[in-house]
Amino acid sequence: MSNFLLNFKKTMIPFLWLILLTHIRWVNAADLANVQTSQVQNIFILAGQSNMSGRGGVINHAITWDGVIPPECKSNPNIFRLSAGLTWVKAQEPLHQDIDLSKVCGVGPGMSFANSVLKRDPNIGAIGLVPCAIGGTNISEWARGGVLYNHMIRRTEAALRGGGTLQALLWYQGESDTVALEDAKLYKFRLRRLFKNVLHDLHSPTLPVIQVALASSIGPYKEQVRKTQLGINLPNVRTVDAKGLPVGMDYVHITTLAQVQLGQMLADAFLQTQTTQAVLLPIQSVTSNAPKSCSNFVLDLLLSPFR
């Protein structure tokens, strides 16, 4: 049996690589033909779990999206998104459709946020959104060195190679940490460590981090997690409280209209940072402490059994 497995790996892995690398080249060529990377001037990371990824309008027991896109979330020629193939494409809902692959994605806060920023500051220039959120993830899965953390850092580095300035990290996560008491107790330590690591590894110590305090939970420890989120004491961190926003029939995911409102709240918080911070440091070339390997998240998952 061991010889069979060895021979299988020797013959199949090169074949798998050929298929995946061919796919990546095709995606990159198609996207680069449509968008000039130099257009993107302001880069925002979208990270966390499903409410950042977007479940607005996901219906029929979470198996389909109703396709309804509010006016506040419509495409705009000055809003781009970084695709799974690490190239800029025109942004449209669902923003995480090729990133959060295990679930059906719907409307999230990202497009409402970007449209609101452009409306209130029309001179800011083109916006580039970097979707990184994955539904159902515990904050322990976002620790430095893990797949999700490395994925976020590598995608951000790729976004910055085309020029532009990293403007903020938008973070909405924590529902998964309300299930177990131990996770709720450790949430403060893990959250602070995450934010500090991101700022360090992206060489951007003044980067604003705008997090969302939970509107819902999966388990009984929501208030403990919310207490941490609302009480975090880091100089770059602002907190937007989602409590009271409408939640869907699953009692976990906020509705499409709630996502619109949340995006506007995030825009308010970001624009406030512009009045209290003289200059955001531009990043022309970025290196990080995250391990360098394949730049595609799907490849990381597919090839992990062979590493």
Walk me through what this model shows.
By secondary structure, the protein is α/β, with parallel strands linked by helices. It has helices at 2-32, 50-53, 110-120, 147-161, 181-201, 222-231, 256-276, 297-303, and strands spanning 42-48, 58-59, 64-65, 79-82, 88-90, 127-131, 165-172, 209-213, 237-241. Strand 8, helix 6 (222-231) and strand 9 (237-241) form a beta-alpha-beta unit.
Features:
disordered N terminus, two-stranded antiparallel ribbon, single chain, seven-stranded mixed β-sheet, disordered C terminus, 307 residues, 9 strands
The strand order across the widest sheet is 5-4-6-1-7-8-9
Helix content: 25-40%
Largest sheet: 7 strands, mixed
Structural class call reads: alpha/beta
Nearest-integer average pLDDT: 84
Order of helices and strands: HEHEEEEHEHEHEHEHH
Uncertain parts: 1-35, 278-307
Overall 3D geometry? globular
Tell how many strands the DSSP assignment holds. 9
**Proportion of β residues?**
5-15%
Task: Return Rg in Å.
Answer: 19 Å
| Oligomer state of the chains in this structure | single chain
Individual helix count: 8
Distance between the termini: 20 Å
Helices, strands, pairings?
Elements: H1 2-32, E1 42-48, H2 50-53, E2 58-59, E3 64-65, E4 79-82, E5 88-90, H3 110-120, E6 127-131, H4 147-161, E7 165-172, H5 181-201, E8 209-213, H6 222-231, E9 237-241, H7 256-276, H8 297-303
Parallel strand pairs: 1-6, 1-7, 4-6, 7-8, 8-9
Antiparallel strand pairs: 2-3, 4-5
Helix pairs in contact: 3-7, 5-6
Keywords: Hydrolase, Signal
Protein name: Sialate O-acetylesterase domain-containing protein
InterPro entries: Carb_Esterase_6, SASA, SGNH_hydro_sf
